[in-house]
Fold each of these.
Amino acid sequence: MDPSTLAAIAVLHAHAEKLGRLDGLLRIHFGGPAKEETDAASLYVQGRSTGPASITTESPGGEPDCTVFVDPTMITRLALGHIEVRFATFSERRIGSIGKASMVLQLGDAIAPKAVVHPAALDTLADMDQALRDIKTHGYAFIADALPLAQLEGLQRRTNEQAQAERELDYAVRDGGPTKPNQRFYNLISKGDEYIELLNHPIIEKLVPAVIDENFLLYSYSVNIAAPGSTSMALHCDQITLQPPIREFPLGLNIMWFLTDVTESNGGTRVYPASHKPEVAPADLYDTAGSIFASGPAGTALVFESRLWHATGPNVELSGTRPVILSFFVRSFVVGSFQKFPLLRSLM
């Protein structure tokens, strides 16, 4: 075996006690993330109800519950904390798998240098003073009646106009599953005075400096429209792209402005309460058990910090859409991977 594979195997043996908690038989194929068999080595890790995992190069018999396809250097990077398993799996596609995907996260959490726990639920509705306390404790807060009726109606009208214009000009950005029924559009500072006026909202002035930084920046400003037939996103947090991971403090604060009643059935965002805490992460990116729907009437603001694990929920309604505005603010030293704002294009 090559040195990188031997190093990866040594890492796994060093964490055999934690790997004993694996939910079944895991096969690790060291041929890279592509889901294909090569002449590279494989390792079998069998979880146990008690005691350390059994780690062998020979199959113990039976089909693995999950086969992981990975470069052996990734195992070492996970163990050193240079990259987080959810980012490596979901955002970067550097780890492939067939079978029970949650076992990939179990593997990464077991060998990570910092312990991970999994969250439980709570709901609340708050004014701005209570919101600061809730964000600190739970990672998110609801603010009722954040948008006065006249401002809400203006934003609804401008959003409908912009969405229709981008569709008609074949400029629409689509996602939401295989049929891509959802629509997004970006650079709202170039798409209407209504969006510019929203940036003067007192919620931004009060909460953003208190949570992150007085010299904050607007990182992104977009609309997300969930349409019938859309599927749920994988769970993620908004600072997952920063690697090695920083979980000790938030880099950003997101404000989601509800332009319609947001419900469990029309694509309400799922959140894991208190999952902003440094040691917390979901056990399975595609299993939302234990999360709650961030539901509320039109005009509500959902404020959540960038470490909170969340995902857009499925829209299972037969008609109607769920538009929300997302304004994401970051600390002054954070720069995006690309700059949206010079791309000023107004579609009226």
Amino acid sequence: MGDSTIFSRSFSRHEHKLFCLIGCLIIALCTVIRHYDNPLSAFSLRSSIGHGLRMLMTTEEKHNAQKSYRIIKKSKPMCNVSERRSDICTMIGDIRIHGNSSTIFVASSQNNSWGIRPYARKGDENAMKNIRRFTVKTSKKMPQCMKNHTISAIVFSGGGYTGNNFHDFSDVVIPLFSTSREFNGEVRFLMSHKNSWWTENKFGKVLKGLSNYEVIDIDKEDQVHCFPKMVVGLKAHKELSIDPSASQHSMKDFREFLRKTYSLKRETAIKLREGEQKRPRILIITRKKTRTFVNEGEIANTTRSLGFEVIVTEADSRLSQFSQVVNSCDVMMGVHGAGLTNIVFLPENGILIQVVPLGNMEGIARVDFGEPAKSMKLRYLEYKISEGESTLMQQYPIDHPVFKDPASIRKKGWGPYGSVYLVKQSVKLDVVRFRGTLLEAFKLLHE
């Protein structure tokens, strides 16, 4: 009787099968190890091995452990610089960032570098001139990791026009939603030009809804942070909008996110029926300094006489409170300006009435608010004021280029143009003329 037969009979049938299974696993593991140097093999294994490791490991962000895994040691940045609104680089592998020097290192056998300013208004020189430039370097030589992370990171800027409500949403918040939503909260935000009031007060709830972790002020970080994946820049498509053909998400998704974040109750605007005594609610957005309604009291009284419940107020940066006010309304109206950005909180099928000042602003008005309103499933009405409704009539003669040739003022640059039409101009609505627009809004609420 041979040694192998004696060995086999010394175990039960069940134990024999167990040894066979273990042997098969060892053979499979050896095969993996033999082919691990092949980058394609490593890449194909990354997903399954990474998932298993994530299940077994306790992440640094949640439990302050100082371990991370990197299956892929070399990676080539995938940078898209062809988009009109923003440049964006996506990197997977061994990614290390030294914030204080604005340098991102990517493990690679080749030495290359790219420069990127992570703010979604790249064609605007005035906005981009103060945005911090990050250098993405591929190199064999990598700085030593000081803080390891097992989740992905997104690098973006809070500079540029941030602080203006329209630009807060159009340049940062909506693009950040589009870029980060796929991570389902398991992502770190590395913010350049970080402003504590912006991140903690105004948009604190939004940021917490998109990420499970505190925002890192990357400009001040002198330690090297290491990540398995990093996105530099934000996905941006159009003003105050998401292009669903270029994104996994839409403005409907974004507005649902806002409703959840701010606990907004109303999904749809009122639908009026004949014989009912319900009064739709209209919010008149006022302004204190520029593009004000000179006769807001008269406007409110006319609107009320047509059957609306009227709220007159200035837009408020305390979004937790003001979002509730907007969401309680069916119609919102105001002169072209950042306050109209709050249409993001209006219920679906609500109505925006944009009052367009003099200065050939129809194009800007439609791009900034008209088209976005439609992408949000809102109805849009536009009221273009006449010369007699502009306070510029008290400042310039009627034959001045300000009235006769606004294009010539625009050619002088945005500064002179904005000074005249956005700063010096206020509006005294002709309530008789404006009455027709209000009646049209009332009619739309019956449809």
